[in-house]
């Protein structure tokens, strides 16, 4: 009797294992939307290499002054084939809390680096990198430089153009004015270069 019960138990265990395997391989089984979206385009990537890239480049951005968590989220989006991830996907990939993601995307949104969009047919939001990200980022700096030049010029007049401080601030005005002029030319040259690459036969 005990041997028969043991055989029946083994049969049930085998059936359970088979059912589990069928569930894992069933093509009709509902999959996580984020996983389904990323698995195709990102096939063939080196996950460990991508993870190292995200952390190393995020570290460089942090050294340059960006908030660390915002830098990690930004590079994760940069490294995504879709250039868009949900809060849950970011939290899972970076092993951080939803609250940390929320703070990071708030920083990046206010900086004009990403935007929020609603997933079609879902209540979940996705965070997407802006088109022409670097062009837009540096172009927006142009307005900052214009304001700096104006304020610095007023400061130089208040300090007196012949005083050591006045001369220092006047040179700063000249530097930022030069940078402003060069930045506009550089951005225009970039557009010409990009359009040439994407033209016929590119």
Distinctive features:
202 residues, mainly alpha, 3-stranded antiparallel sheet, 8 helices, 3 strands, 6% strand, elongated
Describe this protein's structure:
The protein is mainly alpha-helical and 202 residues long. It has eight helices and three strands, in the order ααααβααββαα. It has helices at 2-25, 33-39, 47-63, 68-78, 87-94, 98-110, 133-159, 164-197; strands at residues 84-86, 114-118, 125-129. Residues 6-41 have low confidence and may be disordered.
Mind summarizing the main beta sheet?
3 strands, antiparallel
Instruction: State the order of secondary-structure elements, H for helix, E for strand.
Output: HHHHEHHEEHH
If helices are DSSP runs of H or I spanning 4 or more residues, what is the number of helices? 8
**Structure classification:** mainly alpha
Rg on CA atoms, Å = 27 Å
Low-confidence stretches: 6-41
Strand content: 5-15%
Mean pLDDT: 79
| Shape assignment | elongated
Distance between the first and last residues' Cα: 77 Å
* Quantity of strands, as a count: 3
Strands ordered across the widest β-sheet = 1-3-2
Please estimate the helix content.
55-70%
Give the arrangement of secondary structure elements:
Elements: H1 2-25, H2 33-39, H3 47-63, H4 68-78, E1 84-86, H5 87-94, H6 98-110, E2 114-118, E3 125-129, H7 133-159, H8 164-197
Antiparallel strand pairs: 1-3, 2-3
Helix pairs in contact: 3-4, 4-6, 5-6, 7-8
